[in-house]
Design brief:
This protein is globular. It is α+β, with helices and mostly antiparallel strands and about 190 residues long. The chain starts with a helix and ends in a 10-residue tail after the last strand. The chain has one domain: Jelly Rolls (Sandwich), CATH 2.60.120. Strands 1-2-9-4-7 form a 5-stranded antiparallel beta sheet, covered by helices on one side. InterPro entries: CDO_1, RmlC-like_jellyroll, RmlC_Cupin_sf. One of its GO terms (molecular function) is oxidoreductase activity, acting on single donors with incorporation of molecular oxygen, incorporation of two atoms of oxygen. Belongs to the cysteine dioxygenase family.
């Protein structure tokens, strides 16, 4: 995973810059992630395995200071996430396959959700999430016959961070912690 190790080193250098605010992080981090997902020859097979039960979330790296984590998401054919948020910044790069991202906004008064966008991500495409740019979405594998693999970078140890899922019809919020799919993790 030499390519991945180089990515981690470059991303760590980026995040350690004193003037690395979210816009700069997104601008420069997006370039780094784009370079990483432009080649599909570095991710070990154990982090690309789909499950018939649900999408998989494999931890690839967690910064020792928990400033960021890198995760491989593997979507089986037709799998869909619940509507959820992240509460931190995130970057998503598609390595193989295709994803559909449905974005939502939450009305502060009623709590109800309304659809605010929908787009398809193909290999090499990068998407951004954060409380500042839009943080509530639902993701699905756009393919009915093959898995999709995407690489996600988040501004925390995302598998251990309390986040929220939202009821599509009412906008009701439920806290959750996603965990990881790595062997030995629950």
């Amino acid at each position: 995973m030499v390519r991945f190790d180089d990515f981690i080193q470059a991303f760590t250098q980026l995040i350690e810059q004193p003037d690395c605010d979210e816009p700069r992080l997104f601008s420069q981090g997006k370039q780094l992630l784009s370079e990483l997902v432009s080649q599909d020859d570095w991710l070990p097979a154990e982090f690309t395995r789909a499950s018939a039960q649900r999408y998989q979330q494999y931890l690839l790296h967690c910064d020792p200071q928990q400033r960021f984590s890198v995760v491989s998401f593997v979507w089986g054919p037709g799998q869909v996430s619940p509507i959820h948020d992240h509460t931190v910044w995130g970057m998503i790069g598609v390595l193989r396959g295709a994803e559909i991202c449905e974005e939502f906004e939450r009305d502060p008064a009623s709590g109800r959700l309304s659809a605010s966008g929908r787009h398809r991500l193909l290999p090499g495409d990068i998407d951004l999430v954060s409380p500042r740019v839009g943080d509530i979405h639902r993701v699905s594998n756009a393919l009915s016959d093959l898995p999709t693999v995407s690489i996600h970078i988040y501004g925390a140890d995302i598998g251990n961070l309390e986040r929220h899922v939202y009821a599509a019809d009412t906008g009701a919020i439920q806290p959750f912690v996603s965990g990881y799919s790595n062997p030995g993790d629950s």
